[in-house]
Amino acid sequence: MTRKPDSAAVAAWISLARAHRVAMCDVEARLKAADLPPLAWYDVLWELEKAGECGLRPFALEKALLFEQYNLSRLIDRMHKAGLVERCSCPDDRRGQTLHVNDQGRALRQRMWDVYGLAIAEIVGDRLDAAEAERLATLLAKLG
Amino acid sequence: MTRKPDSAAVAAWISLARAHRVAMCDVEARLKAADLPPLAWYDVLWELEKAGECGLRPFALEKALLFEQYNLSRLIDRMHKAGLVERCSCPDDRRGQTLHVNDQGRALRQRMWDVYGLAIAEIVGDRLDAAEAERLATLLAKLG
DNA sequence: TTGATATTGATGCAACTGCATCTATATTGG
DNA sequence: CCAATATAGATGCAGTTGCATCAATATCAA
Question: Which residues form a coiled coil (chains A, B) (predicted)?
Fold first, then answer.
């Protein structure tokens, strides 16, 4: 019993793969051109900034961003070494730690957003009106 | 003049990133579980199969699949070593080569499609009806 | 023709990812 | 309480990617 996808589903799939690749490559290239780190760093900084005072545990970040545990562990390491993120040992769970973004991290996130936000405006905003963008988000959300 | 994307564009962007990650991780995991190689191999095999007799030049594959030149070069190497792809030296351009899929490659692509096609059916087909899938493809195409 | 430039594809090296596994601590069941 | 199991996070190693650059051939302009 080999089930096959219909052609509309395949077309949507291919468009998803292609649109994602083109869009992400574009953004990553813009960041690199501005001497800024990759998008993943932005995601971490932004989650930590949203988390505020109390910070976030790595496993929470992992779930929020859908990163692999070992990738996140090393990414945090790099970001810590780059002076963007603080690791505080966790009083109530001595296996763990709490992550906090510092001023330098917040400043970097802002600089990244200047580039990233503009890219989103140009890649999405210029090509879809608000209603279309909303419909796109709704359709994509059904795939999650 | 820092231009900012509107919230609908940002929402679409985030959905795109998330839907893509979830969907691709799902498919890659299914392939791995079936002891099959990654999606990129499928793409190469399928392009070569579509190209037929005359095969394809690496630079053509590169454009078709939006791969980086150096990644493609090494991917072809691995696929050649795996006995899936033949490299024929090119009579009219001695810098280049022509790539052909062989029987083993075609057979592998078919086995991959059994898994991949089912995944598309379940991930897209089960969640969007044909009209929705078509609308999604249309919207995503505008981003390319 | 010939020298300058562009294109095709490969590759050395550093960075990153995936996998398996490890240590340390927490939780749970008896 | 204790042993068994689960969870948090780190890490060694192999495989892959990104970057820079190279060699070989093709194209183009004078």
Answer: none
* A70-CA/D13-C1' distance, Å: 14
Into how many domains does chain A fold?
1
Using C1' positions and the CA of A74, the closest nucleotide is D10
Distance from CA of A111 to the nearest CA of B (A): 11
Per-window interface: B 1-40 vs A, CB < 8 A: 2-6, 8-25
Residue B93 CA and nucleotide D26 C1' are separated, in Å, by: 8
Residue A41: inside a domain, yes or no? yes
CATH number for position B39: 1.10.10.10
A65 touches B: beta carbon within 8 Å: no
- Nucleotides on strand C with an atom closer than 7 A to protein CB? 7-12, 16-20, 24-27
Query: Does any domain span residue A1?
Result: no
B2 domain residue, yes or no: no
B101 - beta bridge partners?
Answer: B85
With H, G, I as helix, E, B as strand and everything else as coil, classify residue A99. Answer: strand
Question: Cα B15 to the chain's mean position, in Å?
Answer: 21
Tens-digit pLDDT string for chain A (144 aa): 668 889 999 999 999 999 999 999 999 999 999 999 999 999 999 999 999 999 999 999 999 999 999 999 999 999 999 999 999 999 899 999 999 999 999 999 999 999 999 999 999 999 999 999 999 999 999 998
A2 inside domain: no
Give B34-70 pLDDT, tens digit per residue. 999 999 999 999 999 999 999 999 999 999 999 999 9
Residue B34 CA: distances (Å) to CA of A101, B29, B30, B42, B44: 41, 9, 6, 14, 19
**pLDDT at position A16:** 98
3-state helix, strand, coil in chain A (%, to 5): 70, 10, 20
